[in-house]
Amino acid sequence: MAVLFPHLDGLRIDGVDSVGVRVRIDAKTSGEPAACPGCGTLSRRVHSRYRRRLSDTAITGREVVIRLRVRRLFCDNSDCGRGTFAEQVPLLAARYARRTAILQRLLCAVALALGGRPGARMTRHLAATVSRMTLLRQIRALPDPDRGTPRVIGVDLSRAGDYPVVLHG
Q1: Alpha carbon distance 118, 76 (integer Å)
Q2: SS3 (DSSP) at 96
Q3: 32, 48, 30, 31: which is closest to 84 by C-alpha?
Q4: Residue 55 contacts residue 35 (beta carbons within 8 Å)
């Protein structure tokens, strides 16, 4: 499992079902103590459980949905402002995400290579259908590229008249 699905490593797989053109994976977290994001205190006391639904990359050309059951835990640190917190699986998906990190990277690559409408058509063939606007939002969410520091800066006073012209090399 860790070789074929490294992003699911550390989860307990309860079942895999094939429903039409979709593969559904039922999984839950391991039950290990989780650290509070506010103070870092480890907790094992369960408040409640809930399900997250995550889209994943395709398997044999079929859409994959992971139904992940996670715990909400009590923070036992009295100085922490959080009473409860939800455990996270950072290798699988970001907080509040509805797609796995692998699918998110794939969609970013498609969006950068093809853009909106052509990218949306391509995602249908990848069994990860999204709209053109979703792909454009992916591009807008990316950080600006690092421009770097100019190596040479000079001032040309011969053409400036009253104002100096700054040249970047």
Answers
A1: 51
A2: coil
A3: 48
A4: no
Q: Are 115 and 138 in contact (CB under 8 A)?
A: no
Tokens, residue 97: 């995400």
Pairing of strands 22-28, 62-74: parallel
Per DSSP, the residues of 44-74 read --EEEEEEEEEEEEEETTEEEEEEEEEEEEE
What is the distance between the alpha carbons of residues 60 and 18, in angstroms, rounded to a whole number? 12
* pTM for the full predicted model: 0.78
Of the candidates 33, 27, 32, which has an alpha carbon nearest to the alpha carbon of residue 12?
Answer: 27
Other beta carbons within 10 Å of 20 = 7
Give pLDDT tens digits for 86-109.
999 988 999 999 999 999 999 999
Q: Where are the domains of the chain?
A: 1-98, 99-142
With b for 16 or more beta-carbon neighbours within 10 A and e for fewer, the 27-63 pattern comes to: bbbeeeebebeeeebebeeeeeeeebebbbbbeeeeb
pLDDT at 169 over 70: no
